[in-house]
Amino acid sequence: MASYEKRGNTWRYRISLGKDAETGKYKYISNSGFKRKSDAKHHA
């Protein structure tokens, strides 16, 4: 599942990969620096 948030003047996305079996912590993929929310959605 992807989430989008505006940080300052740029947008970022974060995709949850679920829990790591070894550590029990959640894993994420994220990227930021997009001018528009639609750009972040396109890359996610």
Please provide a written account of the structure:
The structure is a single chain. With 44 residues, the protein is of the alpha+beta class. The chain is built from one helix and three strands; from the N terminus they run E-E-E-H. It has one domain. The protein has a three-stranded antiparallel β-sheet with strand order 1-2-3. 7% of the residues are buried.
What is the topology?
Blueprint: E1 2-7, E2 10-19, E3 26-34, H1 37-43
Antiparallel strand pairs: 1-2, 2-3
User: SSE order, as H and E?
Assistant: EEEH
Can you summarize the main beta sheet?
3 strands, antiparallel
Mean pLDDT comes to 95
Using only C-alpha atoms, the radius of gyration works out to 12 Å
DSSP helix count? 1
**Regions with little confidence, pLDDT below 50 for 5+ residues:** none
Helix content bin? 10-25%
Number of domains: 1
In angstroms, what separates the terminal alpha carbons? 10 Å
Q: Strand percentage, roughly?
A: over 45%
Major β-sheet strand ordering: 1-2-3
Q: Given the helix and strand composition, which structural class is it?
A: alpha+beta
Count of DSSP strands: 3
Shape: elongated
Domain AP2-like integrase N-terminal: 10-44
Protein name: Int
Pfam families: Arm-DNA-bind_4 (PF14657)
InterPro entries: AP2-like_int_N (IPR028259)
